[in-house]
Predict the structure.
Amino acid sequence: MAESSYGPGVRVGNWNEDVYLEEMQLSISEDGYVHHGDSVMLVNPDHPETEADVFLRGDLSLCLAPDEIGAHLSDTPEVPCGLSAAPTDIPVGRNTFIILSAEPAATGDVLRFGQNFRLGITRGCEDLMLYLSSDHRTLLKSSKRSWLQEVYLTDDVSYLNCWQAAFPDPQLRLEHEGFPIPANSKILINHCHTNRGLAAHRHLFLRTYFGKEVEVAAHTHLDVHRAEKPRNHWVLVTGSPRKHSSTMLDVHPLPARATPALGPAACPGAQ
């Protein structure tokens, strides 16, 4: 077993280390927004889990979680492939996603609240694109720990891959429809087909080949005020222009990065 640069205490064999754990380059946002074609990390910001005594702290990134036996046998993950959330702020092959248009839009166009998009991952192999997907829960198909709606990666392009971003404050959500999505700020990511929110379950642990990680599912968790709980909060993290910082997490810690309110420059017609 070889020591990995993915994080302290994580050990991996020689299989696929370059594919899954090779450091990746995130897109740098010059205007403060995210765009179609950008490479980003999806991060659930650190927060205490009030409904459990034991939970995983830190910023958790959405990660590809291949079947351990299958990963030993092939460089290509079996599809559908699982997902998890892991405590890392380093962009690598298994946690770097590409924002893809699900509607007529050119690469480089600003992504907007309420606009359908896909999230694809290549693991550094440009000839294979897997898409973040979900579908209604059934008796035979659900998430491993919570038995809620499963999220997975597949190579089939369909409406099951389509997602939308929403403003986290429900009182301001409607007026933000059509406005550009700011990079490195909290948003909600909702599945178009089922209207369920992408969620990280910090209290439901998974044992993967990469270490202790937690479950990711599609479920909208609401508080007493009918607002989404931090489990449903995500940040599209972009690259840092600074020489010694790989992501904007190194520049602006997430607790200080609230989603900005509407400004005069952020209008639906802005490019």
